[in-house]
What we know:
The chain has 168 residues and is an alpha+beta fold.
Amino acid sequence: MATNFHGKWKLKQKDADMFDKFMEDCNVGLLKRQAAKMISSEHHITQDGDKMAVKVVATGQKGKHQEYTVGGTFSETEVTGDTAEVSTEWDGDRIKETHKTKDFTYTLIRELQDENTMVLHLSSPKGTECKRIYKKNVKNNLMDRQRKIPQAAQARYYIHNNEHMYEL
């Protein structure tokens, strides 16, 4: 069974110095690197087996949307404006993405540290490595699940989660 990355993940910890060096290695200009230090991001992931849909939402940015099957490839525009061919594969319980442009190649490995912590490992063309740690937004994920159950059951579920003992 493949690891399940489904959920809404918010960036909680970033290694700003190493991420800046990683971006510099990938030809990202100084102004964009400086702006990146101020940006918070979320990954909204829908997964059905090997089929992935990843929507990246970043403050003040247009974000991006990826849809792919692990084991396949897709194209995307990098922050530098370069078009990358992205190949994906399972690496144990992790998803490895290799991003290749005409000027550079980098890897991104997505893994779950635990059920509520996702880590992105980034490795630049010059060997700079950094981590970006995301926490699952449990409140939004609970609300997504509640939308899929009948209203009466939602009320019982909500009351049960707040440890009230009311019978509806």
